[in-house]
Design goal:
mainly alpha; MetI-like fold
Length: 294
């Protein structure tokens, strides 16, 4: 059977190879230029930020020795007694850790609920008009730009020490972050169900309720679970400014140089976060359909 593969003339082949090599050389030059710009910006940022690598290496022993000081002395002869002495306040710390989990849960619920209700107003394919969309997006940006520690300090000054300040601070920050994620999810939906709902004479709220939310609920749940993991860590941080949770005792232990208490509290937080990460990861996979295939 005769071959039907078209043959390219040597001149044409040389031209194609030359064009290909020219494109490759241009891309290499672009990559080298980008790397050079990144290197210059890194050096400038280090100089402006007064980053001194020699100071880091000269004092690295202070950093490593701190970990040596916070580690408990556990002997094989009296191991359980040493552990009991290490976790002398286990009941109190566990209660504060549960408070941290509740703060993270309520803050996530508050932030995710508010973001879900407001996200349709910020979505380009759903917002009633440009002014409302612009306002909603600016509100989301403000809430996620201001650090949750700043919000915590403000609410501690307003409401006093306690979990309420932590819930509001983390909730507002979660509202801003999840608002952006939910908005992007809405902007990627199929508009045909929405148009079908609108054709029945439904208003904006009904269109969002029956045409938008059913398409994004699995994504919303996945983002909310991921944010809950982050909020557990944030709940430990805002406690440093008196916003409730185990962070308050951690800050006291650090400030008063109770070294073994620091390691005991940190270990509890780390184990708690690992368990939550594993549990929420499994839930996210189930919601996205990956669990059924694995």
């Amino acid at each position: 059977m005769p071959s039907t593969i078209p043959l390219v003339s040597p001149a044409r082949l040389d031209s194609l190879v030359a064009d290909y090599q020219r494109v490759i050389r241009r891309r290499r030059r672009q990559s080298l230029l980008v790397l050079a710009v990144l290197a210059v910006l890194t050096v400038l940022a280090a100089r402006i930020g007064e980053v001194d690598p020699s100071n880091l290496f000269d004092n690295i022993s202070n950093f490593t020795s701190y970990f040596g000081r916070i580690m408990p002395k556990l002997g094989t002869a009296h191991f359980f007694a040493d552990v009991a002495d290490w976790y002398w306040n286990a009941t109190g710390w566990l209660k504060l850790l549960i408070d941290t989990l509740l703060i993270a849960y309520l803050a996530t619920l508050l932030g995710a609920g508010g973001a879900l209700l407001m996200a349709p107003l910020a979505a380009a394919n759903l917002a009633p008009n440009a002014a409302i969309r612009w306002t909603a997006k600016r509100i989301f940006e403000f809430c996620r730009t201001v650090p949750d520690l700043v919000f915590a300090l403000m609410f501690v000054s307003a409401f006093g020490l306690g979990p309420l300040a932590g819930i509001l601070a983390i909730g507002i920050h979660s509202f801003g972050t999840l608002g952006k994620l939910f908005t992007e999810a809405i902007e990627n939906i199929d508009m045909k169900p929405v148009e079908g709902v609108r054709a029945t004479g439904s208003n904006f709220v009904e269109s969002a309720r029956f045409g938008v939310f059913p398409q994004i609920m699995s994504t919303v749940a996945s983002y909310a679970l991921l944010r809950f993991e982050i909020n557990v860590r944030s709940g430990s941080i805002v406690g440093l400014v008196g916003a409730g949770g185990i962070g308050q005792d951690l800050f006291v232990a650090i400030r008063k140089f109770y070294y073994t208490d620091v390691s005991a509290i940190l270990l509890m937080i780390i184990i708690c976060v690992i368990v939550i990460d594993l549990a929420t990861e499994r839930l996210r996979h189930q919601l996205s359909g990956q669990g059924a295939r694995s």
